[in-house]
Amino acid sequence: MQSLASKLVPKAVEKLIPYQSARRIGGQGHLWLNANELEQPINYGDLSEKDNNHYNRYPDFLPHDTAEAYIEYCEQNSGKLNCEAVTVRGADEAIDLLIRTFCHPGKDQIIICPPTYGMYEFCADSFSVNTCKIPLLADFQLDVDQIKEQLPNSPLLFLCSPNNPTGNSIHEADIITLLEASKDSTLVVVDEAYIEFSSQQSALHLMHKYPHLIVIRTLSKAFGLAAIRCGFLLADSSVMTYINRLIAPYPIADPTAEIALKALSSNGLEVMHKQTNQLIQIREWFKAQLMLLDSVQHVFGSETNFVLIRFKDHLDTYQHLITQGIVTRNQAHEEILKDCVRITIGSKESMLETLNALKTLK
């Protein structure tokens, strides 16, 4: 039976032969003279001998050990998964790869549900792909009926859950409804960058029944590794066969893979979970304190590491905090988020400083 991915993929991608890098071709031997690398590492002094002894060689063309470790981590919460994972340079590269793999420039459109993460539209624009915007409802949930109308015209639907910048998770029942409605038309992408902060189960467990579901994850948020630019794209093999054709020859640097493996070790996961639980406690305390402030109109529920707050009319909260040396995110460019500011949760000391600054807001 022909998969949905094979129906949607452009002919140019279907015929594309992946670049055959030296690592991808592989081979057996004791002299490696196939990749135009320096045979011996150069000692630059500031690197330890251990760190420096392999940087002269190209990394694995796809770091399978990192991807396998991430699947094992996901299976701790979602059960046995029937999918593949590929390590990418942050969730942003995953978004870009999906659009380049499954959309025809100048012809196709993706569906997004604003207010949401801006990179979906940016990546589409950069590839001459249109964006169909179906705004969230007043409670920041999906307008399922309007989305269903656009599915036949769209190879990709991007859903962010928990959503940035609103902070809420999308109802799983709505995701399932859309997966049912899109079986013959659309690949459904659920971006779970903030899933570790959420009480809702990951959509990964739905992949058994819906092979056209794709999940994006990252080490930038709960794992605290934004600087190493490491993300993961998880999908059925029928989808991954085409994505793999467009992945760069050496997508992940060895230091990135090494740090990621440490974070995904049993000890690393224990540290991450402890830190996440502490941050969630600070988040809930901060929300309660915000609601006591006269300047605050509404504090939205959050299943992320940030809080979205609506302040009273005509208060320039963002600029006021800037004058106090506190940089937040102004969301006023979205009509539905007028007078809203997004504040990332930090240490309790940082949140106390922020609260004190807000108390002087007039």
Description of the structure:
There is one protein chain. The protein folds into two domains: 4-21 and 58-264, Aspartate Aminotransferase, domain 2; 268-359, Alpha-Beta Complex (Aspartate Aminotransferase, domain 1), CATH 3.90.1150.10. The chain is globular. The protein is an alpha/beta fold. Helix 12 (266-290) runs parallel beside helix 14. It has helices at residues 4-8, 11-14, 22-25, 49-52, 64-78, 90-102, 119-126, 144-150, 172-181, 237-243, 254-263, 266-290, 317-323, 348-359; strands at residues 84-88, 109-112, 130-133, 156-160, 187-191, 213-218, 231-235, 296-299, 306-311, 329-330, 340-344.
Tell me the layout of helices and strands:
Layout: H1 4-8, H2 11-14, H3 22-25, H4 49-52, H5 64-78, E1 84-88, H6 90-102, E2 109-112, H7 119-126, E3 130-133, H8 144-150, E4 156-160, H9 172-181, E5 187-191, E6 213-218, E7 231-235, H10 237-243, H11 254-263, H12 266-290, E8 296-299, E9 306-311, H13 317-323, E10 329-330, E11 340-344, H14 348-359
Parallel strand pairs: 2-3, 2-4, 4-5, 5-6
Antiparallel strand pairs: 1-7, 6-7, 8-9, 9-11, 10-11
